[in-house]
Write a structure and sequence with these properties.
Blueprint (H helix, E strand, L loop, with lengths): L4 E12 L38 H13 L3 E2 L2 E2 L2 E4 L9 E4 L6 E10 L2 E14 L3 E4 L4 E4 L6 E7 L6 H18 L11 E11 L9 E6 L2 H20 L7 E6 L4 E7 L9 E2 L6 E2 L2 H6 L6 H10 L4 H9 L1 H8 L6 H18 L11 H12 L8 H10 L5 H7 L11 H11 L3 H7 L1 H15 L6 H12 L1
Parallel strand pairs: 12-13
Antiparallel strand pairs: 1-10, 1-11, 2-6, 3-16, 4-5, 4-15, 6-7, 7-10, 8-9, 11-12, 13-14
Helix pairs in contact: 2-3, 5-6, 6-7, 13-14, 14-15
Enzyme class: ligase
Catalytic activity: L-aspartyl-tRNA(Asn) + L-glutamine + ATP + H2O = L-asparaginyl-tRNA(Asn) + L-glutamate + ADP + phosphate + 2 H(+); L-glutamyl-tRNA(Gln) + L-glutamine + ATP + H2O = L-glutaminyl-tRNA(Gln) + L-glutamate + ADP + phosphate + H(+)
GO biological process, one term: translation
Length: 471
Amino acid sequence: MINDWELVIGIEIHLELNTKTKMFSPAPNTYEAKENCNVSHIDLGYPGTLPLVNSEAIIKGIKLAKALNMTIDSEIRFDRKNYFYPDLNKGYQITQQFRPIGKDGLIKIKVKDQWKDILIERIHLEEDTAKSIHDDDYTYLNQNRASVPLIEIVSRPVIHSIEDAKAYVEAIRLTALALNISDAKMNEGSLRTDVNISVRKKGTNDLNTRVEIKNLNSISNIEKAIQYEMQYQINCYENNQTFEQCTKRFDEQSQTTIVMRSKSDSIDYKYFPDPNIPYISLSKQLIDAVNIEELPFARENRYLSLGLNNVQISQLINNIEYAKYLDSIESTDFKKSANIFFSEVVSYLNSNNLNIQDLLFTPRDCKDAIELLNNAKIDKKNFIKLIELKQNNSAHSIIDLAKNNQLYIESIVINIADIVADILKENSNLESQLKTDYNKALKFIMGQFMKKTMGKGNTAELNKYLEEKYL
C-alpha cells in the first residue's frame, strides 16, 4: 500500500545569476540576445585564455548564503570538473567542489499555512554550459549560455512529500527574486531543478536506491515526475523487483520518467584546483558589508500584521516591484493604500499592458491622490483618470492635474434644510407626497438636490434629514 511508504527527496537547483557579464569573461549575460552573439574566446576555452572572476557573482553568492543562514567560506576557490560533452567546449567546467561558498544552511517553507525549515547542505558558484537545442536530425548549440554565472543549491535529503518539494523550490525562487540575484524563470532555464527520489518503509531510516530526474522546468512537472517515480519504485519493491540507480528525464507527452543513463558506475570527474584562478580572500568586513533584502517569510508576516489578505500578499511576494512601490507610499493607513493600489494602480497597468517600471505615476503621486480621495476632493471613479493624466503629463503635480481637468471638488457650504425648503416651495404637492409615496418623492428630491448643489451634495446626509422629518 502506498500509505506504508515514505518519500525521501533531495533537490539540486541551478540558479543563473543576473550579472551584467559572464562568470569568467566580459561577454554580456543577456537571455534575449541572438544565438551565439554573446560569446568570448574565454567561454570557449581557447588556448592561452585566462578566466576573469566576476566579483558581482561572488557578492550575489554571499547574499544567498546569508539569506540561507549558511556558514560562509573565508576564501573563494575554484576547481575544474573534467568531462566531455558537446555543450562544454572547454572539456571542463569551472566549479567549487572542495570549498563551496556556503554550507549548512536552511530555508523556511510554508505548507498548509505552517512554516517549516528545510536543511541545505551547500551552495557553490560555477559556470553554465552552452544550451543544446534538439530536433529530429540535429543538435544545435547556443554558446550564449556558456559561462553564465550559476549557483548550485543542494538540499539535504530531508523532504518527505510532494507538497514540501514544491514549496521548497518555490521558496528558493522567491528568495532569489527578493534578493535580486536572478530572475528565476523556470520556463527560460534560469532556474533548473534536479530531483533525487527514493522511497522507504515508514518508520525506518533506510536510504534505498535513488533516481535522479533532471531538468524539471515547472512546479507542475516536479509534482507529476515525483508522483510517477514514487509509484514506480513502490510497485517495484512490493513486487520484489529491483531497479538501478540512474538518471531519468520527465517526458511530458507520456507523463512518465524515462531512463537517460545508468549511475551504477560513478563518473570520475578528476576534480582538481583550477591553476589559472588564484584564491580570493573574503574578509569578515566584506561579508558583513553585504546586506540582504527582506526575505519572503518576513515580508509575508509583515503584510499579514498590516491587514493585507492572502491574495494581495501572494502578488506582492511574487512581484517585488509591486512590493517596492506599495512600501514607498507614505501612508498612515497601509491597508487602505494597498486596496487602492490593487484596485486602481494594478488595474490600470493590466488594462494598458504596462509594467510598473513604465509607470510615471510615482508612489508620491499615489500618496497625494489618496489624500485627495480621503479628503473628498476627488471621486474614486476619477482615481484612474489621474493615473492616465500623469502618464501623459508627468511634469504636473497631482493636485494641478485634478484642478486643471475639473476633477477637483471644491468645498462648498450646503444647508440641507434650506435646499429642501426651496425644493418643496417650488413643488407644492411634494410635501404631501412624502407622506403618501415617500420613495417616489425621495427620488425626485435627490435629483433636484444634486442639481442645486452641482453634484457636490451629500445624498446620505439628505436621506438622513428626510427620514428624521417625514418617516
